[in-house]
Amino acid sequence: MATLYTLAESNIRKTWFYLTFFLIFIIFLGWLISHFLGESSILWLAILLSITMSFFSYWHSDKIVLALTKANPIEKKDNPELYRIVENLSITAGLPLPKIYIINEAQPNAFATGRDPKNSVIVVTNGLLEKLERTELEGVISHELAHIGNKDTLLATIVVVLVGVVVLITDFFYRISFWQRRDSRRKGEGTILPLIALILAIFAPLFATLIRLAISRKREFLADATGALLTRYPEGLAGALEKISKDQNLLKVANNATSHLYIVNPFRGSEQKSWLHKLFLTHPPIEERIAALRGMKI
């Protein structure tokens, strides 16, 4: 039976495979548009757009996320215990001390953001501080530090940007193809090009979203493993995951754009067990994560 140790090694390989394939897919879409329209400049435009969006996201994504979640920064004097936990675990992990933010919400939850360890942020809710024991809080913080150390925050940003590029390019292809059909009478073009555009319009965004969600799920397993090794107490994180997942308070600031960042899916009341629903979950089933943690031997 697979443990978090073997899952961590496998997840690294699979994540980079997905990301590489995703990049190739975007380039292919740009080439396809330029080929059918006879405009090589479109491919370069797509590449330029991707680079520009990636650059903007790299430097400003953390600020956007913090604004969306209405998180507020704190200093050591505001919550000395939380500050000491983050400080001690950061030293143990060999990471710079991240900035600490708090969301004034009752649901216990947390996430990390930032483009690199030197510019990282850990965000927790008031509910997390009020409802977790110290060992459980340490488990959550170690999980988020693992995301920072593994550069998951940067990876998630890149994938989100690439998904957006796929949707934009596909929509552009879909619209241009029908303009081209009206303006051109070349043999076969009137039926083949719109058909290809329609197929891409339906399946490309879906494919892009599934890749983003798959990478997010894999990274949660890896962060669980790394965090448990950091505290040397897997039960702390396992207990925290149980409490967070069972809490029925709504997280009002949560939305579809940021939900994958949280340690546990922030939405409540919509969990289902069908295979189709699981395809679109941003997190692996909580039962699997807890079972894997409690199966660890440290």
Task: Summarize the structure in words.
The protein has one domain. Helix content is 67%, strand content 5%. Strand 3 and strand 4 form a beta hairpin. Helix 1 packs across helix 2, helix 1 runs antiparallel to helix 7 and helix 8 packs antiparallel against helix 10. The mean pLDDT is 80.
Order of strands in the sheet with the most strands?
1-2-4-3
Distance between the termini: 17 Å
- The SSE string, one letter per element, is HHEHEEEHHHHHHH
**Looking at the chains present, what oligomeric state does this protein adopt?**
single chain
Count every beta strand, where a strand is a DSSP E run of 2 or more residues: 4
Low-confidence stretches: none
Overall geometric form: elongated
Proportion in β-strands? 5-15%
Helix content class = 55-70%
Q: Quickly count the domains.
A: 1
- Structural class per helix/strand content? mainly alpha
Task: Enumerate how many helices there are, as a single number.
Answer: 10
- Overall average residue pLDDT: 80
Largest sheet: 4 strands, mixed
Task: Please give the radius of gyration in angstroms.
Answer: 22 Å
